[in-house]
Design a protein that fits this description.
Elements: E1 8-12, H1 17-30, E2 33-37, H2 47-53, E3 62-65, H3 68-74, E4 80-83, E5 89-90, E6 101-104, H4 113-118, E7 123-125, H5 137-151
Parallel strand pairs: 1-2, 1-6, 2-3, 4-6, 4-7, 5-7
Length: 156
């Protein structure tokens, strides 16, 4: 058995059940903890959420929080890395460490501007070419998580 500190994916007020279901499946496949923060745009009993996660729900460590501040106070030494199309550097420029919290905003709004402004050095973006404004939330979570796994040698 390989010993490692798991990564954490944090979803702030996710709105679309299949995205959260896909991310839950990603977390189950990689040993990543999933944190759902704030008001969810759906019920966790939603059939689309369940379908996206298929029968892997028992493989996912899901934790619920009322606010990001509550989550951060529970992990005072945690490193929180924020994702936004407004980030100054690419997700590949960040040096990830086991146990990092990868934070994603809601599908329609992203992360709050004041949170990004207060954490510029910890905010990354995924480069997008062309006229497309953004990537699907579950796609973005997979891209950033797998870069973190690659950098920490977890894909070897």
């Amino acid at each position: 058995m390989i010993n490692f500190t798991p990564f954490h994916i944090v979803l702030i007020e996710p709105e679309i059940p299949p995205n959260t279901g896909n991310i839950a499946r990603l977390c189950g496949a990689t040993g990543t903890v999933l944190h759902l923060v704030g008001k969810l745009g759906f019920s966790t009993d939603d059939r689309y959420l369940k379908r996206a996660g298929l029968d892997y729900w028992d493989e996912v460590d899901i934790r619920y929080w009322d606010s990001l501040a509550e989550l951060q106070s529970a992990y005072p030494g945690g490193r929180f890395i924020y994702t936004s199309k407004k980030g100054n550097s690419s997700h590949t420029a960040m040096t990830y460490a086991e146990g990092d919290f990868l934070v994603f905003g809601k599908e329609t709004e992203g992360l709050p501007e004041e949170l990004l402004a207060a954490n510029r050095e910890w905010t990354v973006r995924i480069p997008i070419f062309g006229k497309v404004r953004s990537l699907n939330l579950s796609t973005a979570a997979g891209i950033v998580l797998y870069e973190a796994l690659r950098q920490t040698g977890r894909l070897d």
